[in-house]
Amino acid sequence: MEVARLRMYWWNNWMTGTVLVLLLIATPIFTILFKLLDAPGETWTHLRDTLLIGYFTNTLFLLLGVAFFTFLLGVSTAWMVSNYRFPGRRYFEWLLILPLGFPGYIMAYTYTGMLDYSGPLQAFLRNTLDIQVVGSIVDIMNLPGAVFILSITLFPYVYLLSRASFLQQSRTLQEASALLGRNDWYTFRRIALPMARPAIVGGIALASMEVLNDYGTVKYFGVSTFTTGIFRSWFSLGDVTTAIYLAAILMLFVFGILLLESVQRGHRRFASNKSVSKPLVKRRLSARKSWMLTLSCSLLFFLSFVAPFLQILHWVGLTYQKTMDEAFFFLILRTFGLAAGTGALVAVVSVTLVYSLRLSPFKWLKNVSRIATLGYAIPGAVIAVGIMIPILGLDRWLRESLPAGAIGIVLSGTVYALIFAYMVRFLAVGYHPIDAGFQKIGIHVNEASRLLGKNSWKTLWKIDLPLIRAGFLSGILLVFVDVLKELPLTLILRPFNYQTLATKAFDMATNEMIAESANASLIIILTGIIPIVFLNRMIRRVNL
Question: What's the rounded Cα separation, in Å, for the pair 484 and 312?
Answer without folding.
Answer: 18
